[in-house]
Design brief:
This protein is of the alpha/beta class. Helix content is 20%, strand content 23%. It has one domain: TIM Barrel (Alpha-Beta Barrel). The protein is globular and about 45 Å long.
Length: 182
Amino acid sequence: MARLRKRHKEGTVTKIWRETGFVANDPWVIESDEVKAIEDQKPLLGLDDLIERAGESNDVGLGVLIKPADDVRKLEPYLDRLEIVAVAFPAFSDGRAFSHASLLRKRLGYTNELRAVGDVLIDQIPLMLRVGIDSFAVTNETALKRLSENRLPGIPHHYQPAVRDAEAGKGYSWRRQAKPAA
């Protein structure tokens, strides 16, 4: 349980959540000047660091952090060596990670763990699930509380196709036929 709650220098708590619940003992660490992976932890490398490491070795089970300005297509030669791809949401208003996730799942065929990190808010989690993100590094107190209560917001209609079908099936709103007037 010790790793279930990761503390940052600001005093915030990060928990990893999947649809099955909170994850204990997650090994992945976003390294910085102050934080380094130790013992049984694994680093989430930046894109350039991953490419360099993959070019120098045959390592598998790697993890990478994709920032909004990164070209996710550069991962294509290494996808079979990746255990996890984390896509960064630095702010609520920056949705480039949605595009990264969709590109990884639909066009590049990435099937391993895809994690949202950064500003992960409860209202966005259902949309993140639709583009193929399957784990979440959550620090927001409201999101943590709602997830612990298993209370995800519902979205009744979707206007775009996605990796994951809407609950009602594969139909898209622009293809639905209006019922004739009585």
